[in-house]
Amino acid sequence: MTFQRARSEEQRAVRRQAILETTSAMLDEMPVAAVTLNELSRRVGLAKTAVLRYFESREAVLLDLLDDRTTTWLTELEHELDQGVDPSRSALERAEQAADVLSRSLAAQTVLCDLFGAQGGVLEHNVSVEAVRRHKRASLANLALMADLIRRHLPEVGERAELFCLQALLVAGAVSAYTSPPPSLLAVYESEPALAVHHIDLQTALRLAIITSLVGFLPRS
User: Fold this and answer.
1) Contacts of 61 by beta carbon, 8 Å cutoff, 6+ apart
2) Could you give the CA distance from residue 51 to residue 57 in angstroms, rounded to a whole number?
3) What are phi and psi of 81, to 5 degrees?
4) Where does the HTH tetR-type domain start and stop, copy by copy (predicted)?
5) One domain, residues 104 and 173
6) pLDDT tens-digit map of 37-59
7) What pLDDT digit, counting tens, does each position of 159-198 carry?
8) Helix 58-84 and helix 9-27, axial crossing angle in degrees, nearest 10
9) pTM of the predicted model, to two decimals?
10) CATH value at residue 44
11) How many domains, the chain?
């Protein structure tokens, strides 16, 4: 893919979208930590300096992608919760069903979990005040949307839904870092299975954390 210099806002929007789509494709092949501006510019067909005209840094690209992927995922999650939570059940039963849906849905979003894991320690660094402001506004909007989905199926959680959602996303980011061991660690596990006793399965770990947190947010009867 090669581009000539963008001369209109529409052309600039096309370039930005191409950069985001290329980065997204890269993340299907490699972790966030392996994404570099040099490789991104090569794949998108722009000079590194040209990429920096549209995004001020690698981290700025990834923050925008995090916001976009979160919005897309929440659209899917809405349908999954509608299908997976029975409104006729008790609050505890609905909490268990919601935990099943959330853990399964998040575990399928390995790239998104990787981005959540890098958000605070990496992605929100090396970006300008305005870039962080734009990201935080989008992030808070997505968090509010997710909280509304939870309240729709578990109104008992009430105003604490946003805090629950924030905790769920933070846990997803933290746990995901331990669920894809590097080749050296896999070799150790294979040669000495006893050392793999705490090898983490993402969906299982997420469900335990989510149901524990969610039940804690239900009012005591």
Assistant:
1) 19, 20, 23, 40, 51, 55
2) 9
3) -70, -40
4) 13-73
5) yes
6) 999 999 999 999 999 999 999 99
7) 999 999 999 999 999 999 888 888 898 899 999 989 888 7
8) 70
9) 0.88
10) 1.10.10
11) 2
